[in-house]
Each structure stands twice: as structure tokens, then as C-alpha cells.
Amino acid sequence: MDKGRLEAFSDGVMAIIITIMVLELKVPHGAEWSVLAAQWPVFLSYVLSFTYVGIYWNNHHHFLHAARKVDGSVLWANLHLLFWLSLMPAATGWMGENQFARLPVATYGFVLLMCAIAWLPLQYSLICANGGKTSLLAQAVGGDWKGKLAVAMYLGGIALAFVAPWVSCLFYATVAAIWFIPDRRIESRIEQ
Predict the structure, then answer these.
(1) Pairwise CA distance, residues 89 & 119, whole Å
(2) What angle do CA 27, 30, 32 make, to 5 degrees?
(3) Cβ contacts of residue 181 below 8 Å, gap of 6+?
(4) Crossing angle of helices 4-23/72-86, nearest 10°?
(5) Which ranges of the chain have pLDDT less than 70?
(6) CA–CA separation, 133 and 141 (whole Å)
(7) How far apart are CA 155 and CA 113, in angstroms?
(8) Which long-range contacts (CB under 8 A, 24 or more apart) does 120-123 make?
(9) DSSP letter (8 states) at residue 26
(10) pLDDT recorded at residue 63
(11) Three-class SS of 141-159
(12) Where are the beta strands (DSSP E) in 88-188?
């Protein structure tokens, strides 16, 4: 199957996710710094989630750029990832509106964890559809230490949310920072 429709659909869904998140930012009522400062938890939640959606969009783009074709399993795996990403606006809003309370922070971490887990079948199905273990994609992924570290940090963040939600948020931000640094694995393989 042609991968163009998959890319266009996924780009559209991710753009809608970002749009929903930004629409949740309310205009402060008042012209004082104190009114604006009261909105910092919502804004900080938005920044973190925008970064995450951007990271998924970027990696999705690179992965599909390296793929030659997609099949039905790729389509379903992609929908699975988009399902979990589509929950990001609700988790973001709940966490920000409740000023990083324990259960919302744990729920946010759960959504991040499920997005990371949903990435794995997409990655696997794309590798299978494009030549298997010897494919360009398989070589580029390698041991995927970033993916394994992310899952471990999300699990730790979820557990810590009930004790120290701010530490959980630091875990989530650290994972975002690790993934924000450009991953040259796929680009370097494509150039060869």
C-alpha cells in the first residue's frame, strides 16, 4: 500500500491534538502579572504535551520516510498509537487544571506510557513490512535504548506520582529532553 495516505492522516490527527490542547488554554481575565502567573500549571502542562506530540510526529515522519510500503498491520498499529496520543489533551488539561495533583500526574504518565508501548507494534509492523530484521529500519532501530529507558522512567513516574508528583513530572520532562535531542539513527542509515 502507498504510505502517503497514512502519513497525511497521521499528520492531520496530530495537528488536531495540538489544536485541542491549545484551545484548552484560557485567556486570563485581568491585566496583572498575578492573573497570568496563576495559569502557569496549565501552560507548563501544555508545553510538555506539545513537546511530546512534536516528538512523536518527528519520529513518525522519520520512520515512514525510511519505509517503502505499509500494510494492514501497519495501519492498525498506527491507529493504536493515534488512539493513545488522542488522550493527551484530556490528560494534559486534567493535570494542569489540578496543579499537578497526584492522580492526574499518574494518569498523564499512564498516557505517556501507553503511547510509548503503542509505538512498539508500529515500529515492529513497519520493520516487517519493509524487509524484516535485515531492513534499513531494523538496522536503524538497533537496541532502542531510548525506548526502553522511556518505558522504565514512565513506570517510575507513575509510581512516584502518589508520593512526589513533581519528581514524576521531572521524569516525564527528562524523557522528553532525551527524545528531543535529534536521533540520527534513521537519517544516517538513509544517507548510506
Answers:
(1) 18
(2) 115
(3) none
(4) 0
(5) 182-192
(6) 10
(7) 7
(8) 120/147, 121/77, 121/80, 122/63, 122/74, 122/77, 122/78, 122/80, 122/81, 123/63
(9) P
(10) 87
(11) HCCCHHHHHHHHHHHHHHH
(12) none
CA distance 108 to 63: 25
The alpha helices in 67-101, defined as continuous H runs, are 72-86, 88-97
Beta carbons of 151 and 116 less than 8 angstroms apart = yes
81-108 exposure pattern, b = at least 16 Cβ within 10 A, e = fewer: bbebbbbbbebbbbbbebebeeebbbbb
Do residues 39 and 97 touch, judged by C-beta distance below 8 A?
no
- Please tell me the predicted confidence (pLDDT) of residue 10: 97
State the residue for C-alpha cell 501544555: 46
Spatial contact of 71 and 106, defined as CB atoms under 8 Å apart: no
- Asked whether the beta carbons of 88 and 110 are under 8 A apart, the reply is no
State residue 28's pLDDT score: 87
Residues 90 and 45: their CA atoms lie apart, in Å, by 11
Look at phi and psi of residue 11 and say left if phi exceeds 0, alpha if psi is from -120 to 50, else beta.
alpha
Q: For residue 100, what is the DSSP state?
A: S
Q: Who contacts 183 (Cβ-Cβ below 8 Å, separation ≥6)?
A: 59, 62, 146
Question: 6-48, pLDDT tens digit by residue?
Answer: 999 999 999 999 999 999 988 888 889 988 888 999 999 999 9
**Are the beta carbons of 99 and 43 closer than 8 angstroms?**
no
